[in-house]
Amino acid sequence: MPETPYLQFTPGHKANHPLLPTDQWLVFNGTKLLFDGNGNFPTTTDIQSLQPFMIDPLYLGSVVATQIFCGEITTEALLPEHFSFVDSRAAILQAAPENSMLICRAIKIRSWHRKNRYCGVCGSSTRDKLNERAKECIQCGSVVFPRISPAVILAIVNDGKILLARSKNRNYAFHSVIAGFVEAGESLETSAQREAFEEVGIRIKNIRYFASQPWPFPDSLMCAFTAEYDGGDIVVDNIEIESAAWYLPSELPAIPASGSVSRKLIDWFVQTYS
User: Fold this and answer.
1) With 0-12 CB in 10 A as exposed, 13-18 as middle and 19+ as buried, what is 112?
2) Spatial distance between the Cα atoms of 268 and 246, rounded to a whole number of angstroms
3) 4-115: what CATH class?
């Protein structure tokens, strides 16, 4: 995965200078995001007509001298010319890597901001900390940072075939590699072994790091690995997984869209074993 565009972004919790016409905005309407026809975010100038309707504007950071903000509107009226709302999940997969990262950050920070208006310890109101991205309770001083939940996702290979599974969630009409959240006290490798055994009943070995991808639904960091089959028969859990099987590169079923780390794992398998 490209790294250079990510290094240009500097996360922040407070704007460095007054709002400029060229600063960029990630504007949401529910789960939809405002883009132009070329996949660009609007600038401050572009959204002048929307500013009076903006809810909870938040600073995300900067790319060189350009400040990046996000906010929400509840109307699609007065949209700037050449801009329209698109599904934010699709936008993450289709956008350039640097924009995909910003979308993930905006979704996560917005969600964290909304869910932590009150202290989880004493119930009092919270406020933004002055020196870092965090909420602090005005009563007991408890501090809450944006939560990130690591998850593992695995390309398991056996004799030139990859294990692909179909989720019991009927919204997913494709097969993909298996994945699951890391439990408390686990290493990523231990989590990978447990998920493989729990979901499809097999053991794995030679677990190797592949890549990572933020996925803010709700707050995941997908940690991708490759692994080799080490024994056992496929037995699906019938809780999360409906079916699973080994597939040659030439006989793959419907798979995830390009842009996802799951698809990158499958593409790696095809390139390596074809």
Assistant:
1) buried
2) 16
3) alpha beta
Say yes or no: do domains 4-115 and 149-273 share a fold. Answer: yes
Q: What is the pLDDT of residue 72?
A: 94
Tell me the sheet residues that pair with 129.
none
Q: Tell me if 71 sits within 8 A of 28, measured CB to CB.
A: yes
Query: What pLDDT score does 170 carry?
Result: 62
Asked if residue 150 lies in contact with residue 221, where contact means CB atoms within 8 angstroms, the answer is yes
CB-count exposure of residue 20 (10 Å: 0-12, 13-18, 19+)? middle
* Domain locations along the chain: 4-115, 116-145, 149-273
Q: Letter for the amino acid at 5?
A: P
- Taking a C-beta distance cutoff of 8 angstroms, is the pair 165, 174 a contact? no
End-to-end CA distance of the chain: 21
pLDDT score, position 32: 94
Fold for the domain defined by 149-273: Nucleoside Triphosphate Pyrophosphohydrolase (3.90.79)
**What is the C-alpha separation between 179 and 45, in angstroms, rounded?**
42
Among residues 57, 82, 54, 81, the alpha carbon closest in space to that of 67 is found at 57
Give the residue ranges of the chain where pLDDT is below 70: 1-7, 77, 170-171
